[in-house]
Amino acid sequence: MQSLWIVLIWGLMAVFPQNECSAYPRRDAVVTAVEQVSPAVVNISSEYEIRRQVHPFQNFGLSPDMESFFKDFFDHGYEQRYKRNSLGSGVIIDGKRGFILTNAHVIAKAGTITVTLKDEREFQAQVVGADPESDLAVLRITSQTPLPAIAMGNSDDLMIGETVIAIGNPFGFTNTVTTGVISAVNRSFKAEERVFQGFIQTDASINPGNSGGPLLNINGELIGINTAIYANAQGIGFAIPINKANRIVTDLIRHGEVIQAWTGIVVQNMDPRLASYLNLPDKKGVVVKEVEADSPAQAAGVRDGDIVLSVENTKIESMDEYLSAAKSIVAGDSIRLLIFRNGKEIPVVLKTSEFPSEKALALAEKLLGIRVENRFKKGGSARSGPAEGVAIKEIQRNSYLARIGATPGDVIRQIDEISIRDLEDFKKAVIKARLKNSIILLLQRGGRGYYITVEL
C-alpha cells in the first residue's frame, strides 16, 4: 500500500511540475525598460578647485576680536587650495553627436568633467551649455562609434498613479534603479530661496547623485530629468518634464545658452485695496503695470490694468512667482495666460519672441537710469577698438546709481555673471536682467572696482 502511494505522488509531480506551478514571469515591463535604457545612463564626476585664505592664528581657539587683532599685525596668511569631486548622473540623448543631458548644478563648479558609461568606458566631456534657471545642462563627448541613446517620451500626457522608473548614481552607487508612481504633475515648490515650477512629483527615491538621471515611463521612454535640489524631501522626488527640457536643450545646443522669452508684460504686486475695488474673487494675482509697445502681449490683446491670475495653469500670487514663471519660458513658446478684466476671467494665448536687441539701451535707461557708450583706450579712437567695459555717459539724477554717487565716466565691467567688454555684452546682460528683482554691478572708477547691488 505504501509503495502504491509513492507511485501516485511521483505520478502527480510528473503531471504538475512544482516549478511550473509556483513560477511567475520575472522579466516584466520594469526589467525590460531598465535593460533597454541602462546603457544610455552615465555617471558624471566633476573635479573643481576650492581656494581658502588660511591665517596662522585661526585654529588656536582665539576669540574673533583677538584673531582680528593678530591678523592686523602679523602675516596675512596663505592661500590653501584643495580639490573636490562631485558626482551626478546624466543620460545620452543623441548617440551620433554624443550629447548628454544632466542638471546644471551637477557641473556648476566643474573644471574637469569625466563621463563613465555602464560598460566602464570613460570620456572627457565638454560643456555645450548650461542654464541655472532651469537647472539643465548639455555635455558632449566624442566617440569613434555611435553611443547608446534613450528614446524620448511625452511629458504632456502623464497620468497620476502611473508607474515610473528612476535610474542614477546616488552616493556613487552606479546604475541604481528605483521605482514608484507619478504623485503629481505641474508641481511647484520653494527651495534655496527660489520658487521652482512645473515639476513632476514622484515617490521614486531620488537622492544626491541621482541628479541629472532619467525618469522613465513603463515603456522605457524619457519623461523627465531627476533633480535632488529639494533637500528636505523624504519619499518625494522631483523631475523636470522632458517636453519643457527639450525646448531648453535646443537653445543650449544652438546658442550655448537659453534665449529667454519676451512677453512685453511689466507687472507689479496686487494691492489689497485694488483687489477689493476690482471685486477680485481670491484677491490674488499680479497687476499689468505696462504693456510694452510692439510686444507679443500687445499683439495678444493684453492691456494695462489687467490682472494675471495664472501662467500655463500655474497660479500667480506675487511678482516673484510671475518672474519665476517667465524665466522658464523659452523664446518662441506659445503660453496660456488667464487674466481678470472687468469682472471676467479671460484666457489669452500669447506667442513669445526674443527681446529685440535694438531696445536694450532704452531698457537700460529705464531700469538703471543710465546711458552708456563704448570705452576707448587712453589716447585711442574707435579704430583702436573698445577697451574692457562700457562707460556711463549720462545718469538720471533721481536714479539709484546717482544717489549712491555714480557719475559719468564710471565704467561698468560686469553685470551679475556676465563680463562686460563692449556694448554688445552690455545689451545682452541688460536683456537677461529684465526678469530679475536685482542685479550686481561691478563699477570701476580709476584703478578701483566696487560691487553694487541694484534693485530693479
- Gross geometry: globular
Give the low-confidence spans.
378-386
CATH topology of the largest domain: Thrombin, subunit H
**What is the CA-based Rg, rounded?**
29 Å
Q: What CATH first level of the largest domain would be assigned?
A: Mainly Beta
User: How do the strands of the widest beta sheet line up side by side?
Assistant: 5-4-1-2-3-7-6
Largest sheet: 7 strands, antiparallel
Number of helices: 11
Q: Tell me roughly what share of residues is in helical segments.
A: 10-25%
- For the record, give the distance between the C-alpha atoms at the N and C termini, rounded to a whole number: 98 Å
Domains counted in the coordinates: how many?
A: 3
**How many distinct beta strands?**
27
Structural class: alpha+beta
What CATH architecture label of the largest domain applies? Beta Barrel
Mean pLDDT: 85
Proportion of residues in extended strands? 35-45%
Walk me through what this model shows:
The chain is an alpha+beta fold. The protein folds into 3 domains: 28-258, Thrombin, subunit H, CATH 2.40.10.120; 261-354, Pdz3 Domain (Roll), CATH 2.30.42; 357-455, Roll (Pdz3 Domain). It has helices spanning 2-15, 18-22, 29-37, 64-73, 242-255, 272-277, 296-300, 319-327, 360-368, 400-403, 423-433; strands spanning 41-54, 78-94, 99-102, 112-116, 122-124, 126-131, 136-140, 163-168, 176-191, 194-202, 214-217, 222-227, 237-241, 261-262, 265-269, 286-291, 307-311, 314-315, 334-341, 344-351, 353-354, 370-376, 386-395, 411-415, 418-419, 438-445, 448-455. The strands form 5 sheets. The chain has a 7-stranded antiparallel β-sheet with strand order 5-4-1-2-3-7-6. Strands 8-9-10-13-12-11 form a 6-stranded antiparallel barrel. A hairpin with a 2-residue loop joins strand 9 and strand 10 (194-202). The radius of gyration is 29 Å and the shape is globular. The protein starts with a helix and ends with a strand.
